[in-house]
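Margin note: ligand = phenylalanine.
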Amino acid sequence: MSAGREHFSSKLGFILAAAGSAVGIGNLVGFPVAAAKNGGGAFLLIYAIFVILICLPVMMAEMAVGRHTNKDPLGAYNELSENDTKWQFAGWLGVITPFMIAVFYMVVTVWIFGYLYQAATGNLAELADPNTFGAFINSSTLFVYMLVVVAITGAILIGGVKQGIERAAKVLMPALFLLLVLLVIYVLTLDNAMSGVSFYLLPDMSKITGEVISGALSQAFFSLSLGMGILITYGSYMSKKQDIADSSKLVALTDTSVAFIAGLMILPAIFSFDPEIDPSTLSDSSVSLIFVLLPKIFLSLQMDIGYAGASAVASLFFLLVFFAAITSLVSIIEVPNAALMEKTKVSRKKSLLTLAAVMVFLSVLASMSFGMSEPLTKLVHYAGADKSLFDVIYDVFYDTVLPLNGLFICLFVMFRWKKANFNKELTEGLEQGSHKMFLAYSDFALKTFIPVILAVVFINTVAIKFFGVHLFF
Ligand code: PHE
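Resulting structure:
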């Protein structure tokens, strides 16, 4: 064990921090919309199967690698492969991916914070105007909001594992659950709420296509914070007395429950606003839902509860999403931070300041790629469209590299670190005889079909995203 490495103080602390990472914008908005558009209950079922059969084993693999080595992804790949250069590539990718995803997530979190501020200060009517979002993301006030978000994230991270990450998760996660439950209860009392619930839950098998199935897997992977090195890093702060299988199940259960419950908030809200709505016409992007449709829906509540009431509901919603986003942002920045501290032996503070400087620089550029700067807005052209800097970061790191990182970790654990060592790590902290079937299943799946599925998803995504060709589905 590396001297002086900080650890979470308890199992609960670890679970809340890891669940805080997993619960994010993807759960609260991305998941409900994906489910509504793609077959309701049928999508939910496929999603749940992927979480259990594919994501959970990968999650255990990540946690085991982290806890065994006590290192970030770069250090862990290096240590277990004895500095094999082939695996160093996977290690670097395991640090660069979260760094770049943090840039795009930072941009969206800043928007959320801006909308929270505006809703809370009485400007809901303006937010509900369809032209506001376009103007908002191109206004210079954005950079003031960015400073606030960076300061909050930095203040949490500077506290370290126990006093920073764990403490924040212990406050923000219960607050998030409370806000979510309050909003669900309120939304369910609105007219037509139940048509939204039925639409969300009733299965429609005709919507299930190859693309929907692969979309469900990508959504589950992203939602559980896999392939980002986060669970390797958080695993390295986990006690040897803790059961990895049990912890993985709890994190996955929390994440999936929040995503599911969020559907009970979003869909009834949409249906009560427009009972005739055809959800297949909803935009694919969470962004247009959060920043365009929802503000309109919130404003319409003023007929019932007045402008102040509507503003309060909108503020609570944005606060909920903001809490979810902050705990995710913290976790993803901790990965390159842990790697930088380990590699250069600088203090946490120095490391964070260095990262903040580079990250703010890139986030400013990414924020300017929505029109403020022409060259950044039309940075490159592929698959028949102009792509902005933000699109490129999203397409490359979120869509493409995540399954690749997942593939690397499966191959690495099973064939390089070796399954006997992996299994030995899993038995540390394991209650005698528990999770027997699941561990046997994971062992088999990780060395057989999970890597194959991840490889197919990766190749297919590259073909679609960058060449506009559908290979498998
Ligand atoms: N699981 C997060 C979500 O659903 C994804 C994420 C985690 C993004 C950590 C960034 C950092 O939004």
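The chain has a mean pLDDT of 95.
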